[in-house]
Write a structure and sequence with these properties.
The structure is a homodimer.
Chain A (H helix, E strand, L loop, with lengths): L13 H4 L1 H10 L7 E3 L6 E5 L2 E11 L11 H18 L3 E10 L6 H16 L4 E8 L5 E9 L16 E5 L4 H10 L6 H8 L5 H10 L3 E5 L3 H12 L2 E4 L8 H10 L3 H7 L5 E6 L9 E8 L14 E3 L2 E2 L12
Parallel strand pairs in A: 4-5, 9-12
Antiparallel strand pairs in A: 1-2, 2-3, 3-6, 4-6, 7-10, 7-11, 8-10, 9-11, 12-13
Helix pairs in contact in A: 3-4, 3-7, 5-6, 5-9
């Protein structure tokens, strides 16, 4: 008997349908109860538990897709897995409180290696004051780490993707393109420049800057996990605006520029579409003083009513021109 | 280069160390912040978010370990994955509010099959009033479903494993052994009796009875996911008591008895060690009127000080004798 989970026709498979389209189809089937104040579609959901808004997000990293065990140490993998959820929480303006983790791994996996994953989760969580409060462990052919985080808003409204308005400044905190450059280095079989490889292995998420932005009343914010252009596209779609990036304002890190020159590559695609750094990007009022750590990289414009692109890729321009490079980060299996 | 995640020596592997020992070693490395009111070690953790206690639990199901796609439909898998987390929440006395799900699957997986997983999650969550509020989807060689649930206590204290006292009645709600018998049927290549196969595919968790028990002031409660003897062992260890099961009080369902007779098997091991039904077991005050759905199956005794078994298996007896059968549910890879 054939496996009932396998698509008979490639067009009907997850790969054929596309991840975003499938997530949209799933979301349409999920009714949202009265306690849900921010439904699926933002960096995290917000639900009321006994009247208190709780911010909730889950992310899974899979060996061979999001990381390679020969390229990243177990502690790096733990840190990255925690960072993915923590970045989603702070991008909503939530202070992270707790993480839980589900780990699958073959029974032949080194137990000490698993302990170092836990250390990485613990150390990354500690940067935000959150605790790792539980988990599940299962056999399985593939190593995967799923981290779910919850956080609180301390009475503030959550920061959504939908709050940007024309005239806003667009600003970014954290690195752009460093991890993608590090990945390019590793892909070519090198281990240096070390600073880029380390940036790939272990993102430095600007947690404090994100929470400062939330406290300052940022209009919209998003974690850069799909790539700057793609994630600004999410803000543009949800806010019904157009966003223009001014490339001369986007910092290209010195080692990124150096490696790009050495490889004869243009560093701009790494910076505009790299997804591993977990930078934070937000839309701030035109006259706002940007919180420490944020740098202006562009501005929010009225949306031209003629464009109607559901993915929002056409709602983001670079120096006034439509970006014609890759639209966003692709994982190894993309 | 060898895979750094693989144990060089089988004794150092996850399988060699054992899942429980590894979870204990992980837990010891995780400091718990001031907001953590119930740390790892119970069915779920409890953390304070902006002063409100939030109950939080995560469970992962893996194809080939916890389910087989030729034995369970996608909606069954979704229901079981949701039930695992929801049962943990209600066993703490928490009303489930929201679930998030992380799914990994090969890109060749049928998208419609994935949608039916979402339907199963949705339908099981709806039984408790909870909403599925988000998730993540990733490629990966193995299908896995990780469900994280959060719930609220409405001002009540959480129900812990540690509250049983000598003299308490031990009572169970829900089925015992039905799913294990269904698994035995499927393992032998049969598809009937259908009622047992369905019990394996789709647990019927006594959500309402569990919440009624919490409201009635049950002393301790636990979801039966490792098997009755093993899970009562958790209550016995955490409460520092001995628990005696009276086998004549433990209902053996008619189809379970019939199939056991047909296979020449003793049904008692299925009932005492089966882990797929997600029954709830609790310790109630000696004079308590048991909530609807609960049936007394034994009692809590003083712990004999001579026994010192950290796994607590020796802290549970059946008709006054130490249980010498299998100690708890084992998954396919056990």
């Amino acid at each position: 008997m054939s496996d009932p989970s396998a698509a008979q026709n490639p067009a009907d498979s997850i790969g054929g349908r596309g991840e975003f389209a499938l997530i949209e189809a799933i979301t349409r089937r999920l009714p949202q109860g009265a306690e849900v104040s921010v439904p699926p579609g933002d960096d995290a959901a917000v639900v009321l538990v006994d009247g208190t808004p709780i911010v909730l997000t889950t992310d899974v990293l899979v060996a061979g897709v999001h990381f390679r065990t020969d390229w990243s140490g177990a502690d790096d993998i733990g840190r990255r897995a925690a960072a993915a959820s923590l970045a989603d929480l702070v991008s909503m303006g939530a202070s992270p409180v707790a993480l839980v983790v589900a780990l699958t791994a073959p029974r032949s996996t080194d137990a000490a290696w698993v302990l170092r994953i836990a250390d990485g989760l613990r150390d990354e969580a500690a940067l935000t004051g959150a605790s790792v409060v539980g988990g599940d462990l299962s056999g399985g052919e593939t190593i995967s780490v799923t981290v779910t985080g919850i956080g609180g808003l301390a009475g503030r409204a959550p920061v959504l993707r939908s709050g940007a308005v024309a005239g806003d400044q667009v600003a970014v905190a954290g690195r752009l393109g460093w991890a993608e450059a590090g990945l390019a280095v590793l892909t070519r079989g090198f281990r240096s420049p070390r600073t880029l490889v380390e940036a790939y292995r272990r993102p430095e998420v600007p947690y404090e800057a994100a929470l400062a932005a939330a406290a300052s009343g940022v209009h919209a914010m998003c974690d850069v996990s799909d790539g700057l252009v793609a994630d600004l596209g999410h803000i543009a779609v949800n806010s019904d605006v157009h966003i223009d990036i001014e490339s001369n304002l986007v910092a290209i890190g010195e080692p990124v520029a150096t490696v790009a020159a050495a490889y004869g590559s243009d560093p701009l695609p790494w910076v505009l579409t790299g997804g591993h750094d977990h930078a934070l990007v937000g839309a701030f009022a035109a006259d706002a003083l940007l919180p420490e750590g944020f740098t202006r990289i562009g501005s929010v414009k009225e949306r031209a009513r003629s464009s109607a692109d559901p993915q929002g890729e056409h709602l983001v321009s670079v120096d006034g021109e439509q970006w014609s490079g890759p639209s966003g980060h692709r994982h190894f299996d993309g």
